[in-house]
């Protein structure tokens, strides 16, 4: 039953995020909001909505390791799993924004999260506020000075929906996110107890991969349909948003305190390590391109991270 609850929770989170994005994009188009603003706000929020809702619900329910492990695990999965699969399917070009904004901001956000956690092993309201304010500054900078939004995902529908349909999508999306998060958290906690492992291990593996599925599916669909070029900045942008928005908002609502020392001793170092590793990857063996060899290395590293957790 725990496995079924986790599967249902992940499904509801994916559908809820999709419905919420459709409604929000339709509403933005109705009011003639530029696509760059839609990409930076609506789309980025919708694709990170599963992580946000799961983290907030976990913290409020007294499961802080699920909240933090979900974000740390998702960031590792985005690069070690999702990016690996994408570049093994089709090589991707690295855009100039990677050097100017994407990678530096991901590293800054990751280091800030580590610094805030390492001293007292918790993330409190004022630290979350600092993270969230940094996100606001980044969004203003990108909207004003960048040509493309950091999370300019291909949109499935560029049509203005009727108000009734938009409201229906909003309600369905919001309800699915709430119900999905409740189901996933209860299933994950039960699964951890049944397997005799900590909630942190379930969160950085099963839960994090589940909440990263929207990024993976959207990217693979884009490759298959030969839509606009897939930028690595899309996944890096998701990592930035996970830390600055998801952990920022969550800790402003409720303090997030580490219970399992493995999050600081092991998991966050994997997140930092893989994030740093992406920089030399874009120079070797071919500049500004990631391909099969990089994907194989990343997926191998992800396997090395995952499997020992269950030993």
Sheet having the most strands: 2 strands, antiparallel
What would the CATH topology be? A middle domain of Talin 1
Oligomeric organization of the protein chains: single chain
CATH class: Mainly Alpha
Can you describe this structure?
- The protein is mainly α and 311 residues long.
- It has a single domain (2-310), classed as NCX, central ion-binding region (A middle domain of Talin 1).
- The protein is built from 11 helices and 4 strands.
- The chain has helices at 2-30, 35-47, 49-60, 64-89, 97-120, 125-145, 163-195, 199-224, 232-253, 262-281, 292-306; strands spanning 92-93, 122-123, 256-257, 289-290.
- The strands form 2 sheets. Strands 1-4 form a two-stranded antiparallel ribbon.
- The longest helix is centred in the middle third of the chain and has 33 residues, at 163-195.
- It is globular.
- Residues 147-157 have low confidence and may be disordered.
Write the layout of secondary structure elements.
Blueprint: H1 2-30, H2 35-47, H3 49-60, H4 64-89, E1 92-93, H5 97-120, E2 122-123, H6 125-145, H7 163-195, H8 199-224, H9 232-253, E3 256-257, H10 262-281, E4 289-290, H11 292-306
Antiparallel strand pairs: 1-4, 2-3
Helix pairs in contact: 1-2, 1-7, 1-8, 3-4, 3-7, 3-9, 4-8, 4-9, 4-10, 4-11, 5-9, 5-10, 6-9, 7-8, 10-11
Task: Provide a quick synopsis of the model.
With 311 residues, the chain is an all-alpha fold. The chain has 11 helices and 4 strands, in the order ααααβαβααααβαβα. It has a single domain (2-310), classed as Up-down Bundle (A middle domain of Talin 1), CATH 1.20.1420.30.
